[in-house]
Amino acid sequence: MRNGLLIVISGPAGTGKGTVVGKLLEKNPNIKLSISKTTRKPRPGEKEGVNYFFVSREQFEEEIKNERFLEYAEYNNNYYGTPKDFVLESLRKGFDVILEIETKGALKIKKAFSDAVLIFLLPPSLEELHRRLIKRGTESEDEIKTRLEIAKNEIKLVSEYDYCVINDDVDNAVEKIQKIIEVEKLRSKRFDIQSFLEE
Amino acid sequence: MRNGLLIVISGPAGTGKGTVVGKLLEKNPNIKLSISKTTRKPRPGEKEGVNYFFVSREQFEEEIKNERFLEYAEYNNNYYGTPKDFVLESLRKGFDVILEIETKGALKIKKAFSDAVLIFLLPPSLEELHRRLIKRGTESEDEIKTRLEIAKNEIKLVSEYDYCVINDDVDNAVEKIQKIIEVEKLRSKRFDIQSFLEE
C-alpha cells in the first residue's frame, strides 16, 4: 500500500482557502482534512471537531510534552497545532491529507517532511483581495489595512512553496490543485524502481 | 512574454515514445519538437527534417566547434546532437519544446538547464516490453535480449528524472504528460512575485 500525499495549503486571509478546500474534499473522498487543535475559545458558529478541536492550555502543553503535534505555534497568547496521529495514520492508510495552516507552520512541515507538497493560494491581485475583505465585512478599515500588509509579507514566502495557485475562480483553483496532486504522484522519487525491475 | 518549458522525454526502445510524442504534438499546437542532427545515414523511410537532420561528419564537427549544440554524443561512430538555436528561440517565443533523447543526453540537459522537466516513459512491465519488441519484429532474438538489458540499465536512471509515466495506454500517457506540463507551470519558481506585489 502506497502512502498518501501530505499537502499543505496556505494563503492570505480573504483568498478563499476555506471554500477551495471544502470543494476539494467534497469532490475527492480520498483526501482527508487535518483539524488543528487550539486553546483559543470557539467563536460563534465554530464547531468542535469541524473548525478546530478546542482544548485547555494545560492539555495542549501536556500534548506538546508528549510530542503529539506535527507542528505548533503560539499567536496572540493562544496555541495552534497539527495533531500528529491523525495525519500519520491517514497517510499510512493511503489517504492524501490536507493541512490548511499558515506560513510559519507550513515551513516547519516542509523541514520535517521533505515529501510534503506545499501549495500557496493567491488572490487574483492585491486589489481584488482588498475588495474581497471589504465585501466580507467582518473587519474594520484599519484591520483590513493590517490584513493587506500581512498578506504582502506572506506572499513574499511564495518561493518557499512548491506551487502557487491563483484563486480567480473556485472550480478552476480546485481543478489545479487536483492536477497537482495527481502529477506529484508521478514523481520519480515516489516510484519504486526496484520492484518494477524485479517483477 | 513568459518562456516556454523545456521538456525531455526518454524511455527504452519499444516503450512507444514516438507514438506518445506524436499524439502530444497533434493535440498541443503550443508544443514544438526538437529534431536532432546526426551523421548516421538515413534508414529506409526516414525523412530529412522529420526524423533527423542528416549531415556530414565535417559539418557536425564544425557545429560542435561553433557551439551550435545544446548537447551531443557519439554512438557507434555516429554523432547525434540537439541543435541549440531552434530550441532556445522557440522557448523565447513561449513555445514548450520537447527533446526526445536518450538518457545520457537527458542528464546533460538537466545539468545545463536546471529548469528543464525530465520525463521517463516506461512500459507497463519488462515482460510487456519483451512482448512489444517481439511483435515489432525488427530485431533478432539476440538483439531483443540486448535491448532488454539496455532497457534495464536505462530504467535504473529513472530516479534522475523528475517524472515517470507508464505507457499502459497511449491516450492515458499523453494526458499525464499534458498534466505534468500544466502543473509545472504552477511551480513557485516560475511565478513572478515581484510583479504580483507591484501590480
TrEMBL record, chains A, B:
Gene3D superfamilies, sorted: Guanylate Kinase phosphate binding domain, P-loop containing nucleotide triphosphate hydrolases
Record's subcellular location: Cytoplasm
Main location per the UniProt record: cytoplasm
Keyword annotations of the record: ATP-binding, Cytoplasm, Kinase, Nucleotide-binding, Transferase
One cellular component (GO) term of this entry: cytosol
Record-linked PROSITE patterns: GUANYLATE_KINASE_1, GUANYLATE_KINASE_2
InterPro entries attached to this UniProt entry: GK/Ca_channel_bsu, Guanylate_kin-like_dom, Guanylate_kinase, Guanylate_kinase_CS, P-loop_NTPase
E.C. no: 2.7.4.8
Coiled coil (residue ranges): none
Binding site for ATP: 11-18
GO MF annotations, alphabetized: ATP binding; GMP kinase activity
The Guanylate kinase-like domain, residue ranges: 4-182
Alphabetical list of Pfam families matching this protein: Guanylate_kin
SMART domains (UniProt xref): GuKc
Catalysed reactions listed for this entry: GMP + ATP = GDP + ADP
Record-stated family: Belongs to the guanylate kinase family.
Described purpose of this protein according to its UniProt entry: Essential for recycling GMP and indirectly, cGMP.
Protein name per the record: Guanylate kinase
